[in-house]
User: What shape does this take?
Amino acid sequence: MLKKVISVLIISLLLCSLCACDLNEAITDAKDALIESERPNDVTTSNITLENSDDCRIVTMQDYGVSFELPNDWHVDMSETQLDLFCSNGDVHIGVYGYFTSDFADNADYEDIWEEQCDSDLKRFKNVRKLDHDSEFTSTDKEIETVLYSAEYENIKQYVYYIYVKPEVDADVFLWLTTGGLPSDMRNNFDVIEGIIDSIKFGEVNM
Assistant: This one.
C-alpha cells in the first residue's frame, strides 16, 4: 500500500518546492520504477504454488525446486512477468530470478554474473551509492551474498538491496533477488526480508 501520509520533514528534505499531492505522485512514480522496470509483461512465470498456514505462507517455485516462507500479510504476484516471482507487503518488495547453472559456461563465476546483473539493474537510477549493511542470516545450508545501495528516482531516494543465494551442496540452480523500498520502509523491514531469505530451501527441480 502506498503511503497516504507524508511527514513535513520528508517534504522539506526531498521536495520542498512541491505540494503534498505532487510528492505523493513522485513517491508513487519512484515505487513504480522499482516494480515496473523489473516486471515487463513478456515472459510467463514459473509454476508456483502457495500453501497458507497459521504462521506463514509457503511459496514453492516448482520449476526451480525452491521454497520459502512469507509472512501472512505478504502477497504474491503470479501474473506474466520477467521475474520468476514477485512478492510484497505493500511497503517493500522482493523480486526473484532463478537460474540453472547448466545454462552457463563450465568456468562461469556466478558471483560475477550476480554483480553484472546488479550493475545493469542500477542503470535506471541516479546518484547510486553503495552502503554498509550488516546482514543477519542464521541458515547454514546455503551461500548468501548481499549488497545494499542508496539510489534516487525522480527526487525520491530508494534503498535497493540485492541478494545472491545458492545451496551449499552442488546443485543446478541459484537465485538472484532484488528487493527495495523507501529507506524508512527498508530499515523497518530488513529483518523480515532476511528472515524470508533464511527460510529458502532448495529441493528437487520439476523439469
In short: The helical segments are 8-14, 20-36, 110-121, 183-198. Confidence is low (pLDDT under 50) at residues 1-21, 36-45. The chain has four helices and eleven strands.
